[in-house]
User: Which sequence fits this backbone?
């Protein structure tokens, strides 16, 4: 019976962890998604865009370790590289390349979102 | 490389822990839920060892979850007999007083050879010697021999061999029991039965035979 109570606690713990992780990933992905969409739709590169990408880079590096627990390293690396590329293109004022990279990153984010939400 | 070592070590101790919590029965006698959980755990373990790019939680969480389900199943089936019947099934009598229950054989998809092998593994060669043979929920066959039959049967030096199984002849076994096709045909004529209608025919070294006719199910 001791094992039974232990597994009940463990089960509840796993459920709570999965709910938390789902919420955590979704919130982060939504934030990344919004930033990339706003950049991909912009007509001009301004300080606002540069600031939002710098902020995103900071946030991403803070959350990276936590995200790695739930998302594959390949996807993390892909997003990380794309953020650096977007930042570089923004500083170099290369809007079309910047938009292209944003779209690629959005597709990666969509892929991750599909993995974590779909059960089919 | 270090990551693989750490992952393998983690998974090894995690599986050890899971099996320990689930109970020792998982290592020997497999009930359906034991089998499923052990099989799934072994597959899940290999996923993160083989794919270092995946988070280790992809294996750890499912293993712990399966461990919980296994314990839930065993606790709930212990408390509720109907649930136990659904999860594990119930033992089935397949031979009673030397007579094969063909309905049970069909339900369990047991072949005559499966049955004979199970009986022989209990050192019983004559069907008449079996008082009760039960197919347990884990698939093993328990045999309770008939004490009176053991002494009453006139056993030959050469045990009975199957000559006709499920309507098909095994005449190559005749040489072991010093018999011939002619003798078999004589028996069949005497019993007025066709080969196709025979489930099992066994003959021992003394020429004593046991005939089980196929039932129409």
Assistant:
């Amino acid at each position: 019976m001791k094992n039974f109570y232990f597994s009940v606690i463990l089960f509840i713990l796993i459920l709570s962890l999965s709910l938390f992780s789902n919420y955590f990933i979704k919130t982060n992905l939504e934030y990344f998604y919004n930033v990339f969409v706003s950049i991909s739709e912009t007509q001009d590169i301004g300080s606002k865009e540069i600031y939002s990408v710098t902020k995103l880079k900071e946030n991403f590096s803070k959350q990276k370790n936590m995200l790695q627990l739930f998302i594959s390293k390949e996807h993390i690396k892909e997003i990380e590289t794309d953020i650096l590329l977007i930042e570089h293109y923004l500083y170099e004022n290369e809007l079309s390349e910047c938009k292209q990279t944003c779209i690629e990153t959005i597709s990666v984010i969509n892929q991750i979102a599909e993995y974590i939400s779909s059960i089919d | 490389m270090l990551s693989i070592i750490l992952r393998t070590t983690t998974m090894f101790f995690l599986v050890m822990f899971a099996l320990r919590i689930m109970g020792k029965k998982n290592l020997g006698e497999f009930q359906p839920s034991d089998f499923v959980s052990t099989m799934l755990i072994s597959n899940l373990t290999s996923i993160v060892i083989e794919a270092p790019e995946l988070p280790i939680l992809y294996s750890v969480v499912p293993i712990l979850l399966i461990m919980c389900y296994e314990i839930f199943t065993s606790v709930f089936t212990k408390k509720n007999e109907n649930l136990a019947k659904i999860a594990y099934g119930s033992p089935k009598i397949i031979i009673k007083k030397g007579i094969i229950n063909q309905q049970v054989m069909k339900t369990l998809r047991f072949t005559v050879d499966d049955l004979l092998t199970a009986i022989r593994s209990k050192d019983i060669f004559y069907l008449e010697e079996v008082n009760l043979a039960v197919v347990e929920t884990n698939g093993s066959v328990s045999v309770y021999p008939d004490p009176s039959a053991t002494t009453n049967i006139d056993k030959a030096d050469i045990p009975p061999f199957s000559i006709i199984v499920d309507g098909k002849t095994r005449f190559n076994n005749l040489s072991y029991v010093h018999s011939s096709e002619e003798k078999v045909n004589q028996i069949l004529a005497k019993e007025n039965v066709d080969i196709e209608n025979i489930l099992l025919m066994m003959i021992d070294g003394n020429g004593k035979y046991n005939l089980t006719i196929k039932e129409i199910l």
